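sorry for the late reply, my laptop died twice this morning and i had to redo everyting from scratch. anyway the thing you sent over, i finally got around to it. pasting the sequence first so we're on the same page, its 236 residues, then the predicted structure underneath. double check i copied it right bc i was rushing
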Amino acid sequence: MPDLQTLSDQELINTSHHLRHVALRGSGDALSEAQRHEAELRRRFGKVDRAAAWNGLDGHVKERAKPSPEPLTLTAATEKFIIATADTATQSGEALRDLLHNLRVLLKMDIAFVAELVNGQKVYRELDHAEASKVSVQSGATAPLETTLCQRVVDGRAPQIMRDARSDPSLADLAAVHAMDIGAYLSTPVVLRDGSVYGTLCCISHTSRSALGSRQLDSLRYVAEIVAAELEKRRG
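ok and here's the structure:
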């Protein structure tokens, strides 16, 4: 593992840029290295816009760009998450909520959340929802596993894509469908490196969505891998 303090500023910027792109193609090892490089960038430059530095030719860090009110692309959102969580001293909750927000908006869903499945309970760890959503679930709320769609997805009793959950007779007695006002549902397990299931990453629409398919599920799985890598880092 190279000593990052021996790298020049421009070498560090270029290597960090390369590692981020490799990490975003699904390499867990590259993700760990990308976060280590980002932490060194933060130590040297503080909270700055790394993209501006990478686009510069003179090796100097430019002024931070003003944030755009428009949702980021999924690649840009995950890159932002990697930067925000590079330092293990940073609280990752806000960064994860920001990532969930971009995922939810890009997929045109009403709710996005990460839940941990532990001790017979589903625990909402982080959640983002549309302003118009009437669901009042907050981070930290719990529900018995057997009343949730998450558990059914993890154990294979329910599919990861549900375009119209209300019309599925097998879900008629499931409390979560009514409590969360689930019309359409996307869910994928968050799997740690040892193969254990931490929980799920899910998106909910209050209306049915006939167009949901593999492209949206692939986006969800992609973000779930990034979230799993961050959980591994936090656990040490």
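The beta strands are 111-118, 121-129, 142-144, 161-162, 184-191, 197-205.
thats about all i looked at so far, will dig more tmrw
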